[in-house]
DNA sequence: CCCTTTTCACCTAGGTGGTAAGAT
DNA sequence: ATCTTACCACCTAGGTGAAAAGGG
């Protein structure tokens, strides 16, 4: 699918206002989404599968950009899985939100030309339920959802890539952000104009510590190469 | 050992003039150097062992730096190994030098604080004797199982961190360079002031396609974890 | 003869879900 | 009951030198 873009482009810097992002592996994401995607969270951190990957266009080839992701609660509910009906049921209000974090793409910062040359893959991003994470922590400011503020410390590019902390049995929407690295001295004052955000609804998921829906398990085994050991026959190579 | 510094520091930018680099694993390097270090070069590219690693100090924590390496012929000779005397003999003049290349550290550019925080390791650097370094045919990574190919260009551009081309049976001196990323518009005109170079004599080596000195082979097997399969007993951990 | 290339068994390193035990 | 953790076999991915084969 094509970019579900963030808040209105009004007043955006020209270096980001034409930026576009196409989600890769869209048909796989949709196959999972139809069943209700689940993502494992562990203490040590677990990769997402499918991996969040985008193809970028509309960047200034010569300008510097930082790419990052964060994860937004889709509602304030806690869920449980009803095995008898094979469906998710709301089960009370959400637990206190985990400390918001962002994950910078490890290649950040880089030129627009470099980002657009190839598919950008967030395959090193890991999800955890461990609140005590010694990695550098960068607070997620609630920019984008109505608010037009930039996270502090984005421009200095902390170059830390902490794990993302989520609550199990809660639903999340991954978000992807393109941030123009403004060389102006006073760039903080233009920060709200220098980024553009993308949300792909087909990438939303339920965080779990163990898979609940057996059809999700089977689709993971069938499509994730690292789970090949659990495949039975081979219907199609 | 401490930094063998490059040409005189006269006229260097203050962002690099105090930079210092300490070679890590110095005793291992010296142990190899006493025997006459050999490094394998292959068509596909081979890592160095020991890995070139340095601890940096004296950088401006808030300034941006690029770190890179290159390899300088130590003389204009070609060598051959005399097994009867277990020694290297000069055997004519050097072959035409391979196209000079540099290897940028993959984390470049980054702040001085980031570089100084931990040991900088060039463990992704690879040596090759292949003049047609078409690193372009990149194997598909995950979910490239069988025919299910990933769109090309998912991996980092091979052009940004090319393999180092060397002539087998020739001697080389690795060099390490710290380059201050000058934000000034006219920065090209100050380029000669904005870097500082380091050469550690104990890291010089002979490029080979197969080990010649059997004691070098044994020391590689004893000290490189990836060669553990060739170890016999275990005298000392 | 000297050197290079290819293939291979054997490693390191780390990503999977299954399973059983543990926690609440 | 429901959810979490620890450990495991089984994978992917790729870094070793040995040995045999190839090339001048």
Describe this protein's structure.
Chains A, B: Residues 23-232 form the T-box domain. Chains A, B: InterPro entries: p53-like_TF_DNA-bd_sf (IPR008967), T-box_DNA-bd (IPR046360), T-box_sf (IPR036960), TF_T-box (IPR001699), TF_T-box_CS (IPR018186). Chains A, B: One of its GO terms (molecular function) is DNA-binding transcription factor activity, RNA polymerase II-specific. The structure is a homodimer of 237-residue chains. Chain A is built from 3 helices and 15 strands. In chain A, the strands form 4 sheets. In chain A, strands 2, 5, 8, 9, 13, 14 and 15 form a 7-stranded mixed β-sheet that branches. By secondary structure, the first copy, chain A, is mostly beta strands. Chain A has a single domain, classed as Transcription factor, T-box (Immunoglobulin-like, Sandwich). Chain A is globular and about 60 Å long. Chain A has helices spanning 26-35, 112-117, 214-223, and strands at residues 20-23, 38-40, 46-47, 53-57, 64-73, 77-82, 87-93, 103-104, 110-111, 120-121, 126-128, 164-165, 171-180, 195-199, 205-208. Chain A is 11% helix and 28% strand. At the A-B interface, loops of A face strand 9 of B. Chain B binds a DNA duplex (24 and 24 nucleotides) through strand 3 and helix 3.
């Amino acid at each position: 699918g094509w970019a579900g873009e963030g808040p209105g482009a009004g007043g955006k810097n020209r270096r980001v206002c034409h930026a576009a992002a196409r989600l890769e592996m869209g048909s796989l994401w949709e196959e999972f989404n139809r069943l209700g995607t689940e993502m494992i969270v562990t203490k040590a951190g677990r990769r997402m599968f499918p991996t969040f990957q985008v193809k970028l266009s509309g960047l200034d080839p010569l300008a510097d950009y930082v790419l990052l992701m964060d994860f937004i609660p889709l509602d304030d509910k806690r869920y449980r899985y009803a095995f008898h009906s094979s469906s998710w049921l709301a089960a009370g209000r959400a637990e206190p939100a985990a400390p918001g974090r962002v994950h910078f793409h490890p290649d950040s910062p880089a030129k627009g030309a470099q980002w657009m040359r190839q598919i950008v893959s967030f395959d090193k991003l890991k999800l955890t339920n461990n609140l005590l994470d010694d990695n550098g922590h960068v607070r997620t400011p609630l920019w984008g959802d109505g608010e037009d503020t930039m996270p502090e410390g984005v421009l200095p590019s902390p170059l830390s890539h902490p794990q993302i902390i989520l609550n199990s049995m809660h639903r999340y929407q991954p978000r992807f952000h393109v941030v123009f690295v403004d060389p102006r001295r006073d760039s903080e004052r233009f920060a709200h104009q220098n980024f553009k955000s993308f949300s792909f609804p087909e990438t939303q998921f339920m965080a779990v510590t163990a898979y609940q829906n057996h059809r999700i398990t089977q689709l993971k085994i069938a499509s994730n190469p690292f789970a090949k050991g659990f495949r039975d026959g081979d219907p199609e190579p």
